[in-house]
Amino acid sequence: xxxxxxxxxxxxxxxxMTSCENFLDITPDGQVKRDELLSTPEGVEDALYGVYAKxxxxxxxxxxxxxxxxxxxxxxxxxxxNTTVDALGKYQYQNTQVxxxxxxxxxxxxxxxxxxxxxxxxxxxxNAASQPLCIYKGEALALRAxxxxxxxxLFAPQITVDPAAEGIPYATDFSLKxxxxxxxxxxxxxxxxxxxxxxxxxxxxxxxxxxxxxxLNREIxxxxxxxxxxMARVYLTMGNKAKALEYAERVIAESGRSIKSKTEVxxxxxxxxxxxxCLFGIYYAGFYSLVNPKLxxxxxxxxLDLRGDFMTTYxxxxxxxxxxxxxxxxxxxxxxxxxYRLSKFTDIYELQNNASxxxxxxxxxxxxxxxxxxxxxxxxxxxxxxxxxxxxYYNKVVTNRGIDALINPADxxxxxxxxxxxxxxxxEGQTYFNLKRQNLSIxxxxxxxxxxxxxxxxxxxxxxxxxxxRY
Length: 471
Fold this sequence. Notes:
Blueprint: H1 4-17, H2 28-37, H3 41-55, H4 69-73, E1 77-78, H5 83-89, H6 96-121, H7 123-126, H8 133-155, E2 166-169, E3 181-183, H9 184-202, H10 224-238, H11 241-254, E4 278-283, H12 287-296, E5 305-306, H13 310-315, H14 324-328, E6 329-334, E7 337-342, H15 348-351, E8 365-370, H16 371-382, H17 387-399, H18 414-425, H19 431-437, E9 442-443, E10 450-451, H20 464-468
Antiparallel strand pairs: 1-5, 2-3, 4-8, 6-7, 9-10
Helix pairs in contact: 1-3, 3-6, 3-8, 6-8, 8-9, 9-10, 10-11, 10-16, 11-16, 16-17, 16-18
C-alpha cells in the first residue's frame, strides 16, 4: 500500500480535477494542469487513484449505492421518523429530498466519468501499446463500464423488458457537454465493448505484479478477475445466462480466490477487504466514519434499522447454524429488548479505539465484488439445464456458512437462490438490482405492504436538471 501522504496527494488531485457543478469545470488553466498531470505514468496513476477515491464518496459507494439508498429501496434497512427514508422506502420518487439524493448520485457519477475519460483521452493512455500503459487503459475502461452499468441499472428500465427503451448517456469524453441519451441496447453494447477491451488489456497483468507500487494490492483496482466478474453481472442482467455462466466459472476457476469457511466469516468484512473472497474493493481508511453513525449506533431519525423479520430469513426452514447471524449482526439491549444492528461493515478495531492493533496485512475499504456472488450466478444459470451442478455451486457457499447441503437437485429453486444471495450480500447494495432484474414484488420492511413492479418501484426518474439543461 502507498503511504498516507500519497493518498492525501491523490485526494488533492481529485479535488483539482473535479468541481461541484454537474460536470467538470473546465478552464484553460485547469486544462493545462490536467495535460501536465497526465503526461507521465506517475500522473496517470495519481489520476486513477483519484477516480477510485471519488467512488468512495457518500453519494456513491461510500453510502448511497452500498448500505444506504439501495438497501432502503430493497426494504432491508429503515429509519423510523426520518421523512426522507420514509419517502424513499415508499418509492415516492417525486419527493424533493428523494430527488436530491438521486441528483447527487447522477451528478457525482458523471463527474467521475469525466475524470476517467480524461485519463482515457490522454495521448499517453489512448495510444498505449506496452505495459504499464496498457494496464492503465484497461483499468480506466473497466471503471467507465462499471459506473455506467450501475447508472443504467438505477435510472433505466430493465433491458430484458424493452431493449429499445431509452437508457442513459454513455460518456466517452472529458467535456462539459453531456452526450445524448441512447437506447438500453446501445448502453449495454458500449458497456460490453469497454469490458471486452479491458479484459484483453489486463490479461497479462500478473506478469507485472512486482514492477511498481501501483501493481501491488490488485484487489483495490479493477483487475482482470474483477472485470470478468463484472461481465458475469452484466450478462446475467441482460438475460444471457450462457455468457454469465462462462465468466462466473472462469472467475471461480482462475481468480485464486476461495470461499471462506464458517469459522472464518466473523470480522471478514468488518471495515476491511475480505482476504480470500474480495475480487474488487475500494481502499478507504475512513469508511468507519460513515458506517458507525448509520449502522452501528442507534440515533433517532438518522441511523438505519434492519427490517423487522430479517432474522427469520436466516433461521426459518434452515438446517444447520448460519454463522452469518453472528458475523453480520450485533444485538444491543435497548429498553429491555434486543435491537439488532447491521455490524457487518463496522471496523472492530476502530470501534474499540484500538486501530493500531489492526493487522497490517488487512486492507481497509469497501468490498465491491466478492467471490460468493459468482457461485450464485453460476447456480442460477445452471438451474434449468444442469440442476445437479447448480446445486454443487449453491452448496459450496451455504455449507461454508454453516448450513447443511442440499441433497436433491430438485429442491434447489430460484427463490432459494435469491434468499441465500440476499443473506450473503445484505447491506452491499445488490439486492434491489437483483429484484429489479427479475421484476419481483418487494415486501415492505414492516411486512404490511407488498409493492408491485406495476407501481413504478423500478422506474427512478433521471434528475430534472439533466433534462432541463440539455442543449
